[in-house]
Amino acid sequence: MKQTDYTIAALGSHSALQILKGAKDEGFRTLVICLKNKDKPYRMFKVADEVRVVNSYQELTKLDKTILIPHASLISYLGVKAVEKLKLKYFGNRKILNWEADRVKSRQWLARAKLKQPKIFEKAEAIDRPVIVKFFGAGGGKDYFIACSAVDFKAKIGRNKPRPHLIQEYIIGVPVYAHYFYSNLNQKLEIMSFDKRYETNVDGLGRISGKDQAALKNLESSYLVCGNLPLVVRESLLPEYLDIGERTVTASQAIVKGGLWGPFCLETMITDKGEIYVFEISARIVAGTNLYINGSPYTQLSYNEPMSTGRRIAREIKIAIETNQLGKILC
Length: 331
Fold this sequence. Notes:
- The chain has 331 residues and is of the alpha/beta class.
- The protein folds into 2 domains: 3-115 and 173-201 and 228-328, D-amino Acid Aminotransferase, Chain A, domain 1 (2-Layer Sandwich), CATH 3.30.470.20; 124-172 and 202-227, no CATH class.
- Helices cover 30% and strands 25% of the residues.
- The chain has 12 helices and 13 strands.
- Strand 1 (7-11), helix 1 and strand 2 form a beta-alpha-beta unit.
- The protein is globular and about 60 Å long.
- The two termini are 17 Å apart.
């Protein structure tokens, strides 16, 4: 089959604008699937050849000759099990999703890669330092909270809907989100870009003095991501970021048949000692890459043309079609 026989599709959310533009830049027909009243941006920016409005994302099962590019909203709306059962062409390895979504399993994955991770507290009674409480799933930091003791934890956890969560040591440092792409066609890892998240209301609290914060009642920190900021790391840190990315891919090949391929992100913290802690992994494109639709400083070094992560995905699919290797990148 030829490239013109395929359509690249994404749900109308998260990083769809970037994915669809990248696909069009590579010569693909594009499709965006939106819920009602969510289609206006895709009609405005004209990155989709077809805008399909649906009542439910379950209608994805009706797509034919279409390659779906996953992002966090797909996982969030449908859930891991539903995505695993979708009967359509999917870029990436669906088998890895369960290891990403389950925070216990994702720590096992990162431990196998021998990455430095924050301490986990199995019981609230063991809390002896500041911790951040994270809920399972791709929720963009929704409902995360800081606790400083068992008493503090129990007071705050009760305000949330009961669901699986992780009590993780709070590492003080600079949060850095490293964006990678691993090619299953040439077995090479690329650093695509870096970003820092802009979160509400924890970033807003930084504008209020400690004295005023103390005077405000019922003021709580939260970590809902509302945007992303560009970042370039010190060049001396690049060798270590390449190393931890390569070890992550190698470890994935030991836990799941085929391992991890395509875009992924390691969510890290750099301490004042220069140590890099890895506290989470996203096994697909992340919204921080939306900063670099025309490429990042790193892709400018690797390519002689604008190369976003979305376009890099489309380029991989294009090469696979031309070389009859689609089976290596679709699952």
